[in-house]
Amino acid sequence: MMRLLIVCLGNICRSPMAEGALRARLRAARGLDDRVVVDSCGTGDWHVGEPPDPRAIRNAASHGVDIAGLRARSLCDADFDAFDVLLCADASTLRIVESRRPPGSPAQAALLLDWAGTGGGDVPDPYTGAAAGFESVWWQVDAAAAAIVARMEGGASRDRA
Ligand code: 4NP
Fold first, then answer.
1. Which of the four, 11, 79, 111, 161, has the lowest number of CB atoms within 10 Å?
2. Against a cut of 0.70, is the pTM above it?
3. What is the CATH number of the domain that holds 34?
4. Which domain holds residue 133?
5. Per-residue pLDDT for the chain (161 aa), expressed as one digit of tens each?
């Protein structure tokens, strides 16, 4: 079982969109969705308990993915035990995650786009920008999700061989 936690700032835009994209691609890859646990959270607590931003919900829906049922939560100490990899939306999130790491925690922390192998760098925060920012987030996080699933499918077929 691989446990992945996607982390951004508010947990209402980038990380729920990435969670939705990854869940959808895992489901489509038959059999992988019960080998991978996916969750998301934010480093901030302003939006705890809230659904994703309406623009994020609308954008994901336009790509056939329903994220309306997700609720924001903030990063906690237990996440460093409960997950194998904390996948951060941007460098600032990664710095905050590392600063909150409990001593001795084995969890890996990485940039989402680095770990996925889709070119690295940040997924820019779309919160204060135009609607087009959400479409650009979608393409980044969905490409990352596709790359992660493709790598796992490669591993799964090697396991079977
Ligand atoms: P996210 O976007 O980190 O992609 O969820 C943000 C949402 C809310 C805030 C910042 C970023 N905020 O400051 O409330």
1. 161
2. yes
3. 3.40.50.2300
4. 2-153
5. 999 999 999 999 999 999 999 999 999 998 888 899 999 999 999 999 999 999 999 999 999 999 999 999 999 999 999 999 999 999 999 999 999 999 999 999 999 999 999 999 999 999 998 889 999 999 999 999 999 999 999 876 666 65
Which of 6, 11, 13 to probe ligand 1 with, by most ligand atoms within 8 A of CB?
13
Q: How far is CA 115 from CA 45, 46, 70, 96, 159, in A?
A: 25, 27, 24, 18, 21
**Total structural domains in the chain?**
1
| 116 located within any domain | yes
Q: Known catalytic residue: 14?
A: yes
| The one catalytic residue among 53, 79, 125, 142 | 125
Residue 16 lies in a domain: yes
| 142 has catalytic annotation | no
Tallying the residues shown for the chain, one arrives at 161
Check if 125 is active-site: yes
DSSP classification of residue 4: E
